[in-house]
Amino acid sequence: MSDSAHREMWEKLDMDLEAHDALLAVLGTFYGDIYLSQENRLKGAEYLDFVLSEVHGLRIKELEQAKAEGRKVIGSFCVFVPEEIALAADAVHVGLCAGAEAGTELAEQLVPRNTCALIKSFIGFKMAKICPFTESSDMIVGETTCDGKKKAYEAFNEIAPTYVMEVPQTKTAAAKALWKTEVLRYLAEVEQLTGVTITPERLKRGIQVANDKRRALQRLTALRAANPAPISGRDALLVNQISFYDEPIRFTTKINELCDELESRIQAKEGVTPGTTPRLLLSGCPMAVPNWKLPYIVEGSGAVIVGEESCIGTRNSRDLVDESGDTLDAMIDALVDRYMKIDCACFTPNTERLDNVTSLAKELNADGVIHYSLLFCQPYAHETLKVDKALQSEGIPMLSIETDYSMEDVEQLKTRVEAFVETLA
Amino acid sequence: MIIGLDIGSRSIELVGIVDREVVHTKQVPTTFDPLFQCSELLDGLRPASLVGTGYGRNLIQQLDLGCPCSTITEIKAHAFGAAHLFPEARTVLDIGGQDTKAIALAKGKVMKFEMNDRCAAGTGKFLEYTASVFQIPIEEFGHYALKGENPPEISSICTVFAETEATSLMARGERPENIALGLHKTIIKRTVSMLNRVGLTFPLVFTGGVANNPCVRELLASALKITKPTDLLIPATPDMAGALGAALIGCGQQ
Predict the structure, then answer these.
(1) Where in the sequence is the domain holding B72, given as residue range(s)?
(2) Global pTM?
(3) Domain ATPase BadF/BadG/BcrA/BcrD type: where (chain B) (predicted)?
(4) Which of A150, A226, A324, B125 could link A144 by a cystine bridge, Cβ 3.0 to 4.6 Å?
(5) B119 and B74, same structural domain?
(6) Percent of chain A residues topping a pLDDT of 90
């Protein structure tokens, strides 16, 4: 997937070159089968293909260049870690690797076997030394969004020093106050790491850049309401995945270009599939690169995915930070407000998610919803039942899928997804 | 003739239909060469169209039949087959070799379904495996279990763990017929919970190979407190329901 010229860089990062080669080979085959085989693909997808082919190459080189210029790299695992603060301190904010069954056996030395695939994967990537993002990070930020994660960071901290933000579990005023202190504590930590004092001007700029990125993603989401679907769910998921890795200003420009292309397609009534294709919304757990198993199965079963209600999806882009504040305190409050709107299943109660899922399904003209939860992910597994009930009362059919990153259940998943699509046709 | 071919994990069934009347049925074991078995089944037959279903449904693309071929899932196929045989059916239970499915029907169409995850717990495979532990042919295992009286509680639905439990019960001197009955009961427990999850409404049609097992039939009827025989409907050849459904869908596509 990537040029051998990067080998020296990977070696310097103390990565396991042999294991990394094997990972890239699998990823390359996977990408070819799942992405490059698609028909009626957009011109703008060339950008996606290029970014993904260089995700461990040129992008890491950019991170190394940034570091040579004295900038810091902050790696995180969750949409709760405010990117605006990193941007304000002129740091690079990136998502870290998870999404593949890599180093799982190694990870089981640090966390129990019955831990969700995402946690095992991020620990596995680090232990197997195959994630250049982790290795390039000057700071790794965890968060307490579930018991599995909060305990995993204790273990992870032993192999990669991890700063943890405490995410509250309710949306009361007290919880909001707690989150504000956490945001301020993080801001001070970032200032210390980068040596940059975050001024109102700097934070305003950070908010602007992050909001622009979200606005581009919102534009993409809205365009997918069109029938026939102008973009495949796989490509749209890739856009959402890349939003965690690529340089934000470049990403925003490229995605807006992609949206221009989508608009002309919609005007010409062109789609990736015929207008009669059943339209599905994916909802639930995040799908990190290269977790494309379910979207591939769904779109191979004669349906098209028109939205992702997940952290690598609308949960990351739905809400903007209010840009009207001019003082640091007003901007911090705006940040806190925005982040407290995230309807992560870690919150109790979390009724707003039920409203958000149903309204998103309607906005996108979805015929049904596939609820995806990772095996051993308790919060989303619990909400599966609630989401099903909420959708049922609106007459929207839902299929619940619980799986992990392995391929052993592909055939059974195909049967279930195909049968669900048959009921919609 | 329009053919429905149900390529299951344990057996392959063929149903041929002319003018919506069944004119030909045949069943063979799947073996490790299902493609060869399919060719044998189809030998001498010249279908106008063929609909494949079951876990091996995509194999029909390799058959080179020279007629229109399509696939549907076994969920739709069993629903169609069951609704054709019993138009009043509201729920379908299909226990096959590898999967159990509970399907809620409305006007003969699938409204909702539940299916086991990757593990074949509580399916035909479970019975086949435990029967082999008793060294009893699978066809006779149900009759054997019906001789049991006081079934001990077997808590595990996992095939391997259930065997461990059965072995330790044998070591304690429990009558083997009772253990066999206990093993059948574990299947029922799991099946009933799956049926409840799709919102069980009667009449219930029971299809798939396991519906041939008299002990499973009896235990299911008693677990569901069925008093009217019209609430639990079992086709004369329950394992053919999927192939029948597929053939009927083939007629609709004509």
Answers:
(1) 1-86+236-254
(2) 0.94
(3) 46-250
(4) A150
(5) no
(6) 97
